[in-house]
Design a protein that fits this description.
Blueprint: E1 2-5, E2 16-19, E3 23-29, E4 33-44, H1 57-69, H2 73-83, E5 94-103, E6 108-116, E7 121-128, E8 133-141, E9 146-153, E10 159-167, E11 173-176, E12 182-188, E13 202-212, E14 215-219, E15 222-228, E16 230-239, H3 252-263, H4 265-280, E17 284-286, H5 291-294, H6 298-306, H7 313-330, E18 359-360, H8 364-368, H9 382-403, E19 413-414, H10 426-429, H11 434-449, H12 452-473, E20 475-476, E21 483-484, E22 495-496, H13 512-532, H14 536-548, E23 568-569, H15 595-609, H16 618-630, H17 634-647, E24 656-657, E25 668-669, H18 672-685, E26 686-687, E27 692-695, E28 706-713, E29 717-724, E30 727-735, E31 739-745, E32 748-754, E33 758-763, E34 768-773
Parallel strand pairs: 27-31
Antiparallel strand pairs: 1-6, 2-3, 3-4, 4-5, 5-10, 6-7, 7-8, 8-9, 9-16, 10-15, 11-12, 12-13, 13-16, 14-15, 17-28, 18-19, 20-21, 22-23, 24-25, 26-27, 28-29, 29-30, 30-33, 31-32, 33-34
Helix pairs in contact: 1-2, 6-17, 7-18, 9-11, 9-12, 11-12, 11-13, 12-13, 13-14, 16-17, 16-18, 17-18
């Protein structure tokens, strides 16, 4: 479980990513020099803003809907633009913080770069021009809140370098510390594309070096080490995000560095590994494959896969564990913000174009957290829970301003301050269920963990307010009698409501994705309120509303309809598959329970695959994989996982969107492919979305022998499984609380009563062969 490379990293896309849930680093370079690209999750340009809306929002909404109901899409779109298309303000973007530039001033050979996923320690090893072995080790410690590196040679006096900082904004300032062993820096997150260049988060940090032997000096904002036996670099930073008016944050970096130096690198590394392995060590995955291929450097393994060699199944397992590593590195229980479009890392490309490095709410942020629960990293989900709660508070203003409605709403994207208004172009910005889609992660978090306190204090209050919005906002369709949303879009797709020459449209009433999400919202709120015996009147409203929701429908091409009407897609090769939410990650469509709808989603997926101009993008590949997994088609799912790794990942296995897609000027790092692929691999091995624990539901033929330990099913169940020649040999289910569960393998289903703290082992026929006490943390 290592990323390994025999050679220097020529740029960011070959660099090794580290993170501690707040601070990120991508390390690239080689023997003579290296760069640490430093990022911080709260280092955002922009500011909190409220957009005007209109005092007669309900009346204007009614006029729009009348136009759509009578089939006048042009007029409806015109009215929507007048009311539901605010001007772009100081939305902002997450920015790179700075680069740490280190020049070693010597040459060498035999360089090997590694990132050990088992310990979250990166290393660069080589021989200098005198043949002396040099080792560099790097950690991003969550336990102690900083990045640290040790550079050591096997011969005394072999470590020399200069270190300086290069800012990523015009406001960056650096100075030498009076102690002669540090440099400090200060910056503000400002830019002129996504904000006006004057507003953004403040940051202040410190770099300090400790040496054994040799000389160290700090002057002109640069650190110089000469002839040391060993040097340790400490990097810490803090921001004023959420701390305006509180000056204590200015002391944080120095305090963290002082504490780390007191510990020393060995103790710091020990604490870091223990903290990391407490999460990472819960899950293992073995898929077998060619040992010769697995011994090759990672970039060579990816090239082999790209060239059609599929025997390296250990690369699939590596990619899966890499996704778990990135989750732990990017999203810890105390992180102040969740993972954004690029996790907590940032190559700067999305910042300088219209995309922004933000929280896309039309699949990207959701996909970042798709693998979290099943991969036994529930604590890493917490920053998203907290963010959703804050978004729900900010979204009350948007509900009032734009719709004159109760509750809360958010749309296509958000920022560090909980931006909830529609986007500044209705064609993509009027995704009225964007906030609801991200809020569904609260439902997932509860269903996996069954934490009643979380349900009562956080999940239900947030979801209840979302339900109040949709109960107020939705309208009965005058022709069908169904309760529908609208105007809204099916992200970011378009359709022909009539003849092609009349043009494509984006807005309509009652898109399929909307109705799926609202259905799940209403059912969850109804069941939660009944469980807690609260809100009797609301329960009555929800029952009636659920009865009025439109059914999922199959179109004339045998496809699942994306809109309420069976419109023709204007762009059938489109990258988004939002209307398949009910297949994955939802549960409204299932091959066993709803076979006709499952066939329709299969037709939709295959129809999209057959388009010659398919927008080949990282999250689409992940959605194909997870969709076919839910259809129990493991071979097709695996083919899309291979495509994602081989065609849509850089050498460092970080996923990207291809140049030209959605205006991308180059291949742009977007981390959702890593997480979506990780989730799909886990889903092929274990499913529990329908209430059953389904073992090996989509096992590909070429994953004939393997095992996993520690995957998680809903209701707080941990699962181990092993298989040979494509058939289950045994499984172990461990309950964290007493429950009764149906377990499925192939056509067999058994009911098992599970006790808290007891593991039940079953054989390939699902016969119980042993009960044993479980070790539960």
């Amino acid at each position: 479980m290592k990323l390994r490379y025999n050679g220097p990293a020529t740029g960011w896309s070959q660099g090794l990513p580290l993170g501690n849930g707040q601070l990120g680093a991508v390390l690239h370079g080689g023997i003579g020099s290296e760069t640490w690209n430093m990022t911080e999750i709260t280092f955002w340009s922009g500011k909190s803003e409220r957009f005007g809306g209109t005092p007669d929002a309900k009346e204007k909404l009614s006029r729009m809907r009348e136009a759509f109901f009578r089939g006048d899409y042009v007029e409806g779109d015109k009215l929507a633009k007048e009311t539901l298309q605010p001007k772009k303000g100081n939305f902002g973007t997450n920015l790179s913080l700075c680069d740490v530039l280190i020049t070693y001033g010597h040459e060498g050979e035999d360089v090997v770069r590694e990132l050990d996923l088992g310990t979250a320690v990166a290393a660069v090893n080589y021989r200098d021009q005198d043949g002396v072995p040099i080792q560099r080790e790097y950690i991003a410690s969550h336990a102690d809140g900083l990045v640290a590196a040790r550079i050591a040679g096997e011969r005394k006096g072999s470590v020399s370098f200069t270190l300086r900082l290069q800012g990523r904004s015009d406001t960056f300032a650096v100075w030498s510390g009076e102690d002669g062993e540090s440099i400090g820096f200060r910056s503000q997150a400002t830019e002129n594309i996504h904000s006006d260049g004057t507003c953004g988060v403040l940051a202040q940090g410190l770099v300090r070096v400790a040496i054994e032997g040799g000389r160290l000096r700090s002057e002109d904002g640069q650190l110089t080490v000469e002839g040391a036996d060993e040097a340790v670099i400490y990097f810490a930073v803090a921001t004023d995000y959420g701390r305006e008016g509180d000056e204590d944050w200015l002391k944080e970096s120095e305090e963290k560095v002082d504490a780390a130096i007191h510990l020393g690198f060995d103790k710091l590394k020990e604490r870091h590994i223990a903290d990391y392995q407490a999460l990472y060590g819960r899950v293992s995955l073995e898929l077998g494959g060619s040992k010769e291929a697995a011994a090759l450097p990672t970039d060579e393994r990816v090239r082999r896969l790209r060239n059609g060699q599929t025997d390296d199944l250990a690369l699939i397992a590596l990619f899966y564990q890499y996704g778990r590593y990135l989750t732990i590195a990017g999203s810890r229980e105390d992180s102040r913000l969740p993972l954004n479009l690029q996790g907590i890392w940032n190559d700067g490309e999305a910042n300088r174009m219209a995309w922004s490095c933000d929280y896309h709410l039309d699949v990207n942020t959701q996909m970042n957290y798709y693998p979290t629960e099943i991969s036994n990293l529930a604590e890493c989900h917490v920053p998203l829970m907290n963010y959703i709660e804050r978004l729900s508070i900010a979204g009350r203003a948007a509900a009032e301003d734009f719709y004159g409605a109760d509750g809360w709403v958010a749309h296509v994207f958000s920022n560090a301050w909980g931006f909830a208004s529609p986007g500044w172009e209705t064609s993509w910005g009027l995704n009225v269920t964007g906030g609801l889609w991200i809020a569904m992660h609260m439902k997932e978090h509860y269903e996996y963990g069954q934490d009643r306190t979380f349900l009562a204090r956080q999940a239900y209050p947030v979801m209840k307010q979302a339900a109040l919005f949709f109960l107020d906002y939705m309208i009965v369709h005058p022709e069908y009698g169904w309760l529908v949303t609208g105007p809204s879009n099916s992200p970011e797709n378009s359709f022909y409501p009539g003849a092609h020459e009349k043009g494509a449209q984006q807005l309509s009433m009652g898109s399929t994705m909307d109705q799926m999400l609202v259905h799940d919202l209403f059912v969850f709120c109804l069941e939660s309120a009944e469980l807690m015996q609260v809100d009797a009147e609301l329960r009555t409203q929800l029952r009636e509303a659920i009865r009025l929701l439109p059914p999922l429908m199959i179109g004339k091409r045998g496809q699942l309809q994306e809109w309420l009407e069976d419109y023709e897609e204007a762009q059938p090769e489109h990258r988004h598959l939002s209307h398949l939410y009910g297949l994955y990650p939802g549960s409204q469509i299932d091959p066993i329970q709803t076979p006709e709808l499952a066939d329709a989603t299969r037709n939709t997926l295959i129809g999209r695959m057959q388009q010659g101009e398919l927008e080949d993008i990282e999250f689409t590949a992940a959605l194909f994989a997870s969709g076919f997994s839910r259809l129990n088609d493991g071979d097709r799912a695996a083919s899309h996982v291979r495509h994602l790794i081989g065609e849509l990942c850089f050498d460092n296995l970080l996923s990207y969107s291809k140049s030209g897609v959605a205006g991308a000027e180059t291949n742009i790092f977007v981390i959702d492919g890593n997480f979506g692929g990780t989730a799909a691999i886990a889903d092929m091995l274990l499913q529990s979305h329908t209430g059953e624990v389904h073992l090996l539901p989509a096992l590909p033929q070429d994953w004939a022998n393997g095992s996993y330990r520690g995957l998680r099913a809903k209701s707080g169940i941990e699962v181990n499984a092993a298989w040979e020649k494509g058939s289950l040999t045994e499984a172990v289910l461990t309950a964290y609380q007493a429950c009764e569960v149906s377990v499925r393998y192939g056509g067999q289903v058994v009911k098992l009563a599970l006790e808290a703290g007891i593991s039940r082992r079953v054989d390939g026929g699902l016969n119980v062969v042993m009960d044993m006490a479980a070790k539960i943390d």
